[in-house]
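Components:
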Amino acid sequence: QQQVKQSPQSLIVQKGGISIINCAYENTAFDYFPWYQQFPGKGPALLIAIRPDVSEKKEGRFTISFNKSAKQFSLHIMDSQPGDSATYFCAAEGYSTLTFGKGTMLLVSP
Amino acid sequence: NAGVMQNPRHLVRRRGQEARLRCSPMKGHSHVYWYRQLPEEGLKFMVYLQKENIIDESGMPKERFSAEFPKEGPSILRIQQVVRGDSAAYFCASSRNSGATYEQYFGPGTRLTVT
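Structure:
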């Protein structure tokens, strides 16, 4: 049973546009929600993370929006750049282990 | 401060052989996690260890797979009698402590191919 659902599976955005990736979770025991960025052949790199006591967190061009009642959270990448082209994974942490979404392959066209 | 180190980066094994994957956590980190990533899939939790202790192995297959994190040296994920379905990328992550306060940092992974 998939506990973290991520959409879309793939996304094409023009340079300068906004990339939006959505995730939904089921388990209310999750208490930490990180996003990871992964380039081909590399390990996932922590991008930004949020805890459920806040509704939004912004770091540079990256923003997480969190809706606790709906059990949903999303990643917004403002002014998307070709260098942002990668696979993005949302995750949820509970009991010290991470449950990942299936990933979104983002392509930012020049 | 060196990141999480994994070796080998690529490993090819024939069916029935053993695979040993190594992970050295970041300096100051005493918690290690192993995840498996199949093609086109997200990462799946396998096992969580602290020094000399397995804390949670709920994601690890009951047979052929084992993990350890000795007092000295790297954490080892061991797969005995490998089968083609074991072909995947195996990632190790480490954290300074457990719980939502401490982020997990990932290594570059070991890509296992079973022929």
